[in-house]
Amino acid sequence: MTSSTTRTQVGIVGGGPAGLMLSHLLALDGIDSVVIESRTRAEIEQTVRAGILERGSVRLLVDSGVSDRVLREGHEHEGIDLRFAGSSHRIDFQDLVGRSVWLYPQTDVFTDLADARSRDGADIRFSWTATKVDGVETDRPTIEATAPDGSAHRIECDVVVGSDGSRSVCRQQIPEGRRTDYFREYPFAWFGILAEAPPSAPELIYAHSDRGFALISQRTATMQRMYFQCDPTEDPGQWSDDQIWSELQSRVTGPDGLELVEGRITDRSVLRFRSFVTEPLRHGRLLLAGDAAHTVPPTGAKGLNLALADVRVLAESLQRFLLKDDHEALDAYSEQALDRVWGAQHYSYWMTTMLHTLPGSTPFDHRRQIAELTTLVGSSAGSTLLADGYTGWA
Ligand code: DHB
Q: Is residue 212 helix, strand or coil?
């Protein structure tokens, strides 16, 4: 029994940053949408995610009128430290490419978007589950959804967008013979922590060491985010705080005496590493965006930035399709977005393989990585390539 039918122009499955930003951008063009999200707002806000925004992501948030909180509460970072063989080498983004990034957690981006959508009276349905997407090969696709009280509802749309994350239900609507999935698994993971401590360094440190990779990131004056490379089967519950700190310290130690400021560890988890892309991003009236279409390994923090870049292109294509009847626009989205997706895939893969230790790697492999890093920091061409990608390709 369907209790209600809603008619909208764009039905969006998934209310993370990609889905909410798309709904916001469409509203600016007078296009209405309904967003279905299975989690509660609080659940999304409590999940610890990455913390670096490219300049383009910051501009999108501010210029589209979501919020300027990122400029007030975020921190501009004009460079990073690459650390190897026990020494740090600064990559100066401003000098090299004239751009910065902003330290501003993804959960704050989500909060800003959810507040903006609620402020503008949008139809965002948290705790609703999309059970079925139908008719994507017709001009009237539908989403079947269950409300928190268990009642069944139908949303009739002109277009359905799947921004429902890496385990996307929408993606399954594209028949296997009509899509190509590209996939790569890595034989390591990140052990991520949040710790009550002041920052250990002014900027982020990406550290290559003979014990594996470590990333020293930040959150606030009193809370820090750090990661170290571990086995994908590692159980974070088995580690004492002391063991974690000792592992992190061992990966940044060097003749310059760098030492991390330690503190109570308040959150810990193991993050899997994957590269995934599905092509094309369109099947009939169904379009995919964000993690539903692609996943990158976390080194370089491209995931959220890529999702926002997708929906910026997608909003424009939907505007052309829905308001100007331009039927080429939906294919154009797939082609245009995939260019950036593959650029970011390559970038994340490159940063990952340059800095991590592969199981079974030999002293030759380790020494060659140091030579690669030495070449990179000693060459303005090499450093510029890194800075250009990190800050998000002009
Ligand atoms: C963070 C995560 C990343 O993957 C990265 O490359 C930089 C920062 C973070 O969570 O702060």
A: coil
Q: Which residue ranges form the domains of the chain, and what is each CATH number?
A: 2-51+105-179+280-350 (3.50.50.60), 186-273+360-391 (3.30.9.10)
Q: Give the whole-angstrom CA distance, residue 212 versus residue 359.
A: 10
Judge if the beta carbon of residue 217 lies within 6 A of ligand 1: yes
* Chain position carrying tokens 């996307």: 168
Phi (first) and psi of residue 207, to 5 degrees = -110, 125
- Atom of ligand 1 at shortest range from CA of 50: 10
Q: Which amino acid is at 256?
A: D
pTM of the model: 0.97
What is the C-alpha to C-alpha distance for residues 201 and 221, in angstroms, rounded to an integer? 11
Q: How far apart are CA 171 and CA 181, in angstroms?
A: 10
Read out DSSP for 59-119?
HHHHHTTS-SHHHHHSEEE-EEEEEETTEEEEEEHHHHHS--EEE--HHHHHHHHHHHHHH
356/206 Cα distance (integer angstroms):
10
C-beta 205 within 6 A of ligand 1: no
Distance 31 CA to ligand 1 centre (A): 34
Active-site positions read 77, 206, 298, 302, 390
Give the model confidence (pLDDT) of 272-314 as tens digits: 999 999 999 999 999 999 999 999 999 999 999 999 999 999 9
